Structure formats: structure tokens, C-alpha cells
Amino acid sequence: MAVAAATTEPLDRQLPMPFHPSLPTPPAKKRLPAGRPREWYVSHNRRLKAMRLAIALLDSGVYQPTSAGNHKIRTTAERLGMRPPSDTTCRMVRALIRYGR
Questions:
Q1: pLDDT digit string, tens, across residues 23-46
Q2: Does 1 score more than 60 pLDDT?
Q3: More exposed terminus of the chain, fewer Cβ within 10 Å: N or C?
């Protein structure tokens, strides 16, 4: 049997890359309501950070809370450009992964 000859075409004649839609833009940020106790703002921001980390871990293929150790969560935060999360936030991330199933 004859082997098909491999032909290489110049780059300008090759088919264009398939279209990939751009990532969705995040919604516009709104100011947090004034007049709440400081603890409310701390817990609110902690929940938002935990949610962003849980989504990033799920997107990277971590579906079990047991495989999301503190080191993996902190490495993901570094990759996303966040400050390293506390132990409390890491526990929150694992809880979101566990109860999101």
C-alpha cells in the first residue's frame, strides 16, 4: 500500500483556526451597602473569594473536596492573582465543592 505523501502548505493557505468565543465579561461592580458591621464585609468578601476559588478548581478538574488541599487552593489563588487564602477560606472552598454536587 502506498503511504500518502505529507504536503505542507504555506501558513497563508492553511485553514484558519476555529472560532472560540471570548470569555464572558464579569458584571459591573457595585458598591457594597454602607452602615453594616465590619464583620459583615469581611465574611461577604471571604464568601466571594471562596466562590471564585471553588469555580476555578472545578474548572481545572478538582471535583472532590478531599483532593482540594490547602496547598492546591493556595496555588490556584496564586495562579488567579489573588492573595493566599486563610485556612478558614480553604475550608469554605471545600464546603462549596462538597455541597455543590
A1: 567 678 888 889 999 999 999 999
A2: no
A3: N
